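To whoever is covering the structure queue this week,

Two jobs came back overnight. Logging them here so there's a record in the thread.

Job A:
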Amino acid sequence: MVLIVDDNQENVFSLKTLLNLHKFDVDTANSGEEALKKILKNTYSLIILDVQMPDMDGFEVAEAVSGYSKSKDIPIIFLSAVNIHKKFITKGYASGGIDYVTKPFDPDILLLKIKTFYRLAEQTRRLQEMDRELRDEIEFRKRAESRLKDNVAELESILESIPQVAFTTDFDGNVEFVNQNWYQFSADRDKFPQCEEGDMCQYVKSAIRTQHQQVHEVKVKKLGLEAFRFYVLYLTPVQHHGIASKWVGILTDIHEQKIAAQLLEKRVQERTTELVRTNQKLEESNYELQQFAFIASHDLQEPLRKIQVFSNLLNEKYTPPSPQAQGYLEKINLSAERLRKLIADVLDYSNIKGETSFSIVDLNGVVERLLTDLEVVIKAKGASITAGPLPTLEVIPVQIRQVFQNLISNALKFARKDVPCQIEITAEYIADKAIDAPAVPDGDYCRIAVQDNGIGFSEDYAEKIFEIFQRLNTSERYEGTGIGLAIVKKVVDRHHGLIAARSIESLGTCFIMVFPVRQTKPVEALQQFTT
């Protein structure tokens, strides 16, 4: 920008118009004081200064401009029509001007001078900026180099204090520093310790190629010893502007840990082999136990049938028996019937693992067919059962029917007297495998609840009821073997699900089950659920 300083508005207007025509940015001042204020606030590349001005003439303004550090390098062209004597021209140059133009002047000549001085001023400013930037860069580099030296000294001090072997290399892999522990493995600073397999220098070059930290397990021996020991070699880059300028190597002794790990691994392998053999024996024992339970259950039923048949024959052939004999026969029949149910339930419990074939099953159909089969019992109890809508799940059909049959039969069995039995079966999708997971429309799991209004039980026994042969009520009050809920729990486990019971005494019980919508675990995993 060019500053024109003149108290004559006509001179200012004509000169400003000339410069504007040639694309110069122009600012003006009508006095020396105004010019000095603007010079302090703005940056100018050239000042055209009139000599003859009131209060403060051009020479005084030029001297003041030359005295400011900010403006001392701004070129000044004096322009005067009055003070054209040689002494005034000399004074103009002495006060800081670079040219003195007297009026009348040739506009073209003045314009050439303005362009020349303006260009020189801009070049000078750019050179000064470049010089300032270069000085700043030099100073920055000096400080960075000083910090780097401090950091390197600190790093070397740290490496010297650690118990491991430590060294540093330059970006080409040449060793620059080693701590005292290095000399336990190598007598020469430039020679890497001897490895049993491979070459430590090659590990360093590999790290330089990748420009990433590398960790290698190596076997190294100390000087004067024959045995190699296990070590871990850490090669870590020291980054500078994103480039690895140095590499730090740490050699850590892991021989004892390695030997212990190998011994542990050997023991784990031995233990695994032993467990495999044990599992095979358990599978054989479980199979034999299952066969025994099946045969025993089948063989036990034959004498039971004879007991029932002969009891009935005694009751029919020698009638009317004495009241005491009649009571004995009834007790025999009741005990035989309970034993028959117990044998049947034990057989069912032992055979749960027999079927492992999953299929897509509509639970609505399962429950509907089951209610048809239980129609007589439901009518006898005067029960009301509502179900659904229920989902389609991937289950073992026979076993899922067993679950609903046992839960519904349980609800019917433990109904309150003089209170109509009500059973409700509901289902909803949930996101997580958890009893209290929030419901979602397209979850991967399904929560099924079987709610009744029966006698209920104390929730202190909520876990106990799923154990085999566990009963909360005597067989005299409620018939049963104590196996039904154990069968339900086992089937739910085989379907990789969850089951829980919530109850309030005299108000009812709710059994809550969570099943995967689709089975993701292999069928072989089911074999672990054995008796």
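Job B:
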Amino acid sequence: MPADRPATLAAWLRTRSDAQLAELLGARPDVARPAPSDVVTLASRLAVPVSVDRALDELDAATLQVLDVVLLAPTDGVEAAEVAAALPGLPDDVVAAAVERLTTRALLWGEDVLHAPDQVRRAVRYPAGLGRRAAELRVALPADLPAAVGALDPAERQVLERLAGDRPVGHLPEAGGGAASPARRLLQAGLLARIDALNVELPREIGLLLRGPEPYGPPRPEPRPAVVEREPAVVDRQAAGAALESVGRVGELLAVLEEEPAGLLRSGGVAVRDRKRLAKALTVSEADAGWLLELAFAAGLLDVGGAHRDEWLPTRGYDVWREQPLADRWATLAAGWLESTRLPSLVGQRDVAGKGVNALSPDLVRHTAPAIRRSVLTALAASPPGSGLAPDDLVALLRWRTPRRADRLAPVPDMLAEAARIGVLVGGVLSSGGHGLLTGGEEGAAMRMQGLLPEPVDHVLAQPDLTLVAPGPLVAQLADTLSLVADVESSGGATVFRVTESSVRRALDAGWSATDLHDLFTRASRTPVPQALDYLVDDVARQHGRLRVGAIECYVRSDDHGLLSQVLSDRRTAGAELRRLAPGVLVSGLGADEVLGVLRAAGYAPAGESPGGAVLTRPPARPRAAGRRHGALPSPAARPVTAAEAEATVREIRAGDAALAARPAAPVRQIPGVTTAGTLEVLSRAIREGLPVWLGYVDAQGSGSQRVVQPVSLAGGFLQGWDERRQENRTFAVHRITSVALVDEEAPAAGNG
């Protein structure tokens, strides 16, 4: 190798500009934290297997094919000009962009001659889908390999051609009682290598022979799928309808769970019995009920709570959510879905043990789900407004973009269906809200949906058939009131409430009077209140409260002695354990709540009574779970590196490199805790001239580190300065400083070691 060419990855990194190093840190953020102390440390992190795999997983098929050319070269190092010649099916600009992408990520290094780091070679086990060389497999190939392959029968050649495709490893059929299988005959002829008891591998030389003029496989340019065209205004209208439906359904679900929470299974999740109950209450299918449970959970509106944390309850966030504008409510649901690590489409499917998977079960967790959803939306967002892709074409494009993650794309069709249900996309076209969700998160989604969703209304239309029609989404206060005094008959763009005898009685049980109900209907309805509705309220109110239940452990009293006798002799009230105490009074050893429940179940209309004789109202409690957003929290290593962070990290790397280069071969170690005059001199000069320094420091736990610091003051044995690594002001004990050097100078002044 010429003397002017770097011999190692670390040496090549030193030749890169600050901008190129910053670009490397941005492309592979996992190597940037904590900041590498020098180039050698950076090169070591770039070779960590997990980091290499992560970087390779993000490459498209064309870039991986360019990498294969270098990996399959007979010698280490390939001329950059030879790479394009080896792939005539790919345009030169595609090859050049792929080389740039690989060198930017340090998966290849070099300028005129490209090298692959050893860890990259180990990570790509079968480059271009070819097996290992015959020497590595310890197979002796025939001297005239083309003649040996040409003499094979069609069945044997078919086996070889199949293994010469994308994967050179195949399963060896079991030995039968008759003639040997084609694979076993090939194994005996030395054209296959056994790698274990069940599998064989095709040697690379045979794969290259069978591929002929395309040793690296067919060219893999980016697919150009047909574009789906839709009118953007129509897409947004349909998306708004789906968003409105989702917000309404989730609100109804949480209102039902507020009244009667769902139980928590010991294995986690919601029982099928509770899912059926919710489906019946919402008049939806059981699959839809499971989807709504998962959506509410992902948005942080539903969680485990209760006295023993054994119930699924609305969270405290639900109280805030229901008061927000519709666009904000939808954005919370959409952002929760995008960030969720769960796959709702698995609800009802069978696990490996043959058991059905329940909604909200831990079995639905897939940590790759958020990245897949984001890749789906990113692919659709690349099309102009009103344009999109069909599901099959989208999956094909994603397989090309991340071929090493192709096995994770099975849930994509279900994810597209979920996105359509909540209004993120319509018919393969991303809506305005979907664009906002992808680029601006929850806030951006809400902003883009404003004006597309109707404003909440504060009135209903009373009908002669005892229904109340809400011509749009209701304000939270009116929706709460109507949920108490009426039952939802149908929901959608316009919600229909029906007032029934039981719903009026429910309102009276909660402390409403007949006058209150008349005033409510008169005030809330834009149409005249039908006489039938007034008559219904008055009839139920006359019957309500004729029985009074209190606590002795409790008593039941009424001025209608005949009614008490009827209650006492009714078989349906036997569970209340009533007995007569006086002509107008019955007593029970059970609590008042239990007696009220038995009498109401028997068809009576009792009212609670306070010790003073007044009607006792028991407003329904609103139990809440603490709750939190159940999304995919990116790890600190995977968090994107900002431009400022990258710049500061590059400065630390350069400073550390300069300090290492300037150190003598055998540095003199001083006694820890003793500060040299050279250290104080360098720090004083840095403060005086406003220069940053490279600082070696040992903390109280004995951990050493190297960092770039902008000194501010030096007094009392402590250095005050701005730490570039942590982006904050720090205080350093001078006696813990091990070395110091000006960033812009060559030599460091040795301190305590």
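Note for Job B: DSSP finds 30 helices and 28 strands in the chain.

Please reply-all if you pick these up so we don't duplicate work.
Q.
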